[in-house]
Structure formats: structure tokens, C-alpha cells
Design brief:
By secondary structure, the chain is α+β, with helices and mostly antiparallel strands. The protein is built from three helices and seven strands. The strands form two sheets. Strands 4-1-6-5 form a four-stranded mixed β-sheet. The chain has a three-stranded antiparallel β-sheet with strand order 3-2-7, with no helix packed on it. The chain is globular and about 45 Å long.
């Protein structure tokens, strides 16, 4: 596992006008209503040489169908996580041991109808909802929980 690199990645904590954040249900876990990891934040890989701020808006457009957002904060740290052993060689196309992530807080500038999961022919998500930021850690799979705890703590003042 240690021979594999980390995949460069960006993530979005998207706040609506009421201060709730968007989480989306993974399309490959449609029956995971209450299961950790069934719901997650939008995130995705960075293209080679791509600026993280550009990448996070691109990922929003690709994953939730809109980039109607403005960046309001950038987490100062890059986070890494390792995949659990049973996912090595399977998840992330088998090419990575985990991900190295830069996270952003964004303000949603659109309306709920702008969120369109149906625009991608192979969507990552099949449902979405707004939740309180404090609920975020309880939604995470164990190997991402420390990151979601840090985001909930560090973006709480937004």
C-alpha cells in the first residue's frame, strides 16, 4: 500500500442561506439512508496543474450540476486519508492508497432547483439534502471521520 500515491483532491462544504450544508447520497449506496458514508460532501480529483480553487468549482458543477457558489474560506491544511485494506486496488481505480485533500467552504448563490444530479450520465450521487454542519462527522465512513470532524470544527464560525 505504501508504494501507491495519494490522489490530489478538493472538497466542498457548501453552505446555503440558512447556514446548512449540502450532503449528497452516493449512487452506489442507495439503501444507505443512515449508514456512515452513504452521505458525503462533494469532492473530486484535481487535474494535473489545476489550481485547487478552480478545481473545487469544477467539481461542484460536475457532481451537483451547478457552480453557483463563491469561496468564503479555504482550510489552511491539506488532509490525507488512507483507504482501508479491503478497498486498496479497488477504490479510486486501484491507483491510489487514499487521497490528499484541500477543503473549501463555499456560499451557495443559487436556488435549490440549480442543484441537478441528473446532468451527469453516470452520476456519483442520487439524492441530496441540507443538514447542520455539526451533523457532518456522523455521516462519515470511519476512515474519513477525522477530516469531517476537523471541517465541522474549523468551519463552524461560518
Amino acid at each position: 500500500m505504501s508504494d501507491l500515491p495519494y490522489r490530489p483532491n478538493v472538497g466542498a462544504v457548501l453552505f446555503n442561506a440558512e447556514g446548512l450544508i449540502l450532503v449528497a447520497r452516493r449512487a452506489d449506496m442507495p439503501n444507505a439512508e443512515g449508514a456512515p458514508g452513504g452521505w458525503q460532501l462533494p469532492q473530486g480529483g484535481m487535474d494535473e496543474g489545476e489550481d485547487p480553487r478552480t478545481a473545487v468549482l469544477r467539481e461542484l458543477a460536475e457532481e451537483i450540476g451547478t457552480d453557483r457558489a463563491e469561496i468564503i474560506a479555504e482550510h489552511p491544511d491539506w488532509f490525507t486519508y488512507d483507504l482501508p485494506p479491503e478497498l486498496i486496488g479497488k477504490a479510486l481505480k486501484g491507483k491510489y492508497r487514499g487521497q490528499r485533500q484541500k477543503w473549501f467552504a463555499l456560499r451557495f448563490m443559487g436556488v435549490d432547483a440549480d442543484i441537478r444530479l441528473d446532468l451527469d450520465p453516470h452520476p456519483e450521487f442520487d439524492a441530496w439534502r441540507w443538514v447542520p454542519l455539526a451533523e457532518l462527522p456522523s455521516l462519515a465512513v470511519p476512515f474519513k471521520r477525522a477530516i469531517y470532524e476537523a471541517l465541522a470544527r474549523d468551519f463552524a464560525g461560518l
